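Quick start: what a row looks like.
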Amino acid sequence: MKNNTFFGFTILAGVAILLDACAPAYVPNVINTPLLSNKGELQASINGGISGFDPQISYALTDHIGLALNGSFANRTSDSTENYHKHNFVELGTGYYTKMGKVGRFETFGGVGFGNTRGGYSNDLWSAYTNANYTRLYLQPGIGIATAPFDGSLAARLAFVNLKQGSQRSTGVFLEPVITLKTGFKNVKLSVQIGLSFSLNENIDFNYHPFIFSIGLHTHFFRNY
């Protein structure tokens, strides 16, 4: 089992590196799925994966309204200065959440984010470069369970990406379903997220990363179980 898991992660990492060779202008960040339970609950997490370093903070303003602040940062450079990928992205969202029984949760978040991407890949046959700013609007419903030792959820983000590079502009619409698992202790859990990013455009003018994968450390406080 351990060998199979390691082999799967190795393949996924290899695919991620290969796709970065296309100089993607849009790399989807880790989706924040807090599964808030009550007013005053606070959550924070740090995640690392395909999208780089992704910190997240969530807070429950009331028993049904929550806030989410998310970021994504990457700075990858190969042995050649011609091959690199860098991005910075920050977004703020708000949403509605409610309990379904004792452990069930439903939530819908939406918000706006701003970022920039720079990247390049060059070899003897072809070259690709990106230097773009973008704005993203998103809507993200999700459903899951929240317990002391385990949280699990299914969520799908609908993302509207507005990208500008020089005088050129392009818009992409993406559907991004993910599975998120968090397990460990009452206040600290190991988290894993895996998902996909599908373009809903018939034709899209920029490269993007089609996978979401991360491993992180998640903490939460003041949750009433």
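That is the whole record. The CA atoms of residues 112 and 137 lie 5 Å apart. The longest helix spans residues 2-20.
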